[in-house]
Design brief:
Layout: E1 3-7, E2 10-12, E3 18-25, E4 34-39, E5 46-51, E6 57-59, E7 67-72, E8 77-82, E9 91-97, E10 108-112
Parallel strand pairs: 2-10
Antiparallel strand pairs: 1-3, 3-8, 4-5, 4-9, 5-6, 7-8, 9-10
């Protein structure tokens, strides 16, 4: 049974940092391109960052230079280090493959507010 469990979200002031983690199980994690997504109410879920098996990374324009995605193919985790957070980064964050094929987890809420 595939599981994606996101954690690490919280309330942070503008300019602050958070590190999100996603624990994946039930599939051959190291074979897949993994990605982080985010969604705010009333808007479509958007891809924030992706990382290939070989650790090539790509980012949405809105987060490039501030966010860093990484993966551990032994622990089956994909992480998102978020720095210089802005109010616009407030969203529910999810992980999945880059063409999402697994059932979405519950996500982790990130709120950036003073």
């Amino acid at each position: 049974q595939v599981q994606l469990v996101e954690s690490g979200g919280g309330l942070v002031q503008p300019g602050g940092s958070l590190r999100l983690s996603c624990a994946a199980s039930g599939f051959a994690f190291d074979w897949y391109v993994m990605a982080w997504y985010r969604q705010v109410p009333g808007k479509q879920r958007e891809l924030v960052a992706r990382i290939t098996r070989g650790r090539t990374t790509t980012y949405a324009d809105s987060v490039r230079g501030r966010f860093t995605i990484s993966r551990d193919n032994i622990k089956n985790t994909v992480n998102l280090q978020m720095n210089s957070l802005q109010a616009e980064d407030t969203a529910l964050y999810f992980c999945n493959t880059d063409t999402p094929i697994w059932t979405w987890g519950q996500g982790t809420q990130v709120t950036v507010s003073s």
